């Protein structure tokens, strides 16, 4: 078999590459260059938006890792029935504890003050659930075995529907509740009865 034409082809190709790599630097069309700047600007804008959301608006993925025995929530000190809902501690910090379970939120409705830092602690008693309140930073999965803790602040009074946003079974569509936000001056702290202590788990 005569391989000469093939050898010649290869030699030519190598010569062309060698010619290209010396001499002129890579030529970039001005239009292409302009588009490269546009893309850089778009990427920078996205990074800036993420940074502003994280640092100014405090929108972050929940990084709080705390485990709990989901099967024994009713026996735990913190998530026993009497402790659910809104509580105010001695320093005036407001904590809301809600249990998600097929198919509802317990309690189904909570009333919180506007313009106040609130700490929400969510737990699941069975499977994966999730909540998302549009226009707030309240967006988390509620994994069985973990406490999903979120800090938020509702600037204005209003009613926020609470919908489970993780498919959890046949009754998922009926899994809802609500958060009522009332003006700070019209809000009265719930009367606390049971022992409020902190979590009795790691
Ligand atoms: Cu659900």
Structural account:
There is one protein chain. By secondary structure, the protein is of the alpha+beta class. It has 2 domains: 8-55, no CATH class; 70-186, Immunoglobulin-like (Sandwich). 22% of the residues lie in helices and 26% in strands. It has helices at residues 4-21, 30-55, and strands at residues 85-88, 94-101, 104-106, 109-113, 118-124, 129-132, 139-142, 148-152, 158-163, 176-182. The strands form 3 sheets. Strands 1, 2, 3, 5 and 8 form a 5-stranded mixed beta sheet that branches. A 3-stranded mixed beta sheet has the order 4-10-9, with no helix packed on it. A hairpin with a 6-residue loop joins strand 6 (129-132) and strand 7. The chain is elongated, with a radius of gyration of 29 Å. 17% of the residues are buried. Residues 194-202 have low confidence and may be disordered. Copper (II) ion binds at residues 129, 164, 166, 168, 172, 175.
Secondary-structure blueprint of this entry?
Blueprint: H1 4-21, H2 30-55, E1 85-88, E2 94-101, E3 104-106, E4 109-113, E5 118-124, E6 129-132, E7 139-142, E8 148-152, E9 158-163, E10 176-182
Parallel strand pairs: 2-5, 4-10
Antiparallel strand pairs: 1-2, 2-3, 5-8, 6-7, 9-10
Bound molecules: copper (II) ion.
Copper (II) ion is lined by residues 129, 164, 166, 168, 172, 175.
């Amino acid at each position: 078999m005569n391989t000469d034409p093939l050898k010649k082809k290869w030699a030519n190709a190598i010569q062309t590459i060698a010619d290209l790599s010396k001499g002129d630097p890579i030529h970039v069309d001005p239009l292409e260059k302009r588009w490269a700047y546009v893309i850089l600007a778009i990427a920078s804008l996205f990074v800036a938006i993420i940074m502003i959301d994280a640092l100014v608006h405090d929108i972050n993925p929940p990084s709080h890792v705390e485990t709990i025995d989901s099967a024994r929530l009713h026996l735990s000190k913190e998530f026993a029935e009497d402790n659910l809902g809104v509580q105010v501690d001695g320093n005036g910090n407001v904590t809301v504890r809600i249990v998600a379970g097929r198919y509802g939120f317990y309690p189904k409705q909570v009333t919180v003050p506007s313009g106040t830092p609130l700490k929400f602690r969510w737990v699941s008693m069975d499977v994966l659930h999730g909540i998302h309140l549009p226009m707030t930073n309240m967006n988390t999965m509620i994994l069985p075995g973990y406490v999903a803790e979120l800090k938020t602040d509702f600037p204005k009074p209003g009613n926020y529907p609470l919908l489970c946003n993780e498919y959890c079974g046949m009754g998922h569509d009926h899994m809802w509740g609500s958060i009522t936000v009332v003006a700070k001056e019209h809000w009265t702290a719930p009367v606390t009865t049971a022992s409020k202590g902190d979590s009795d788990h790691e």
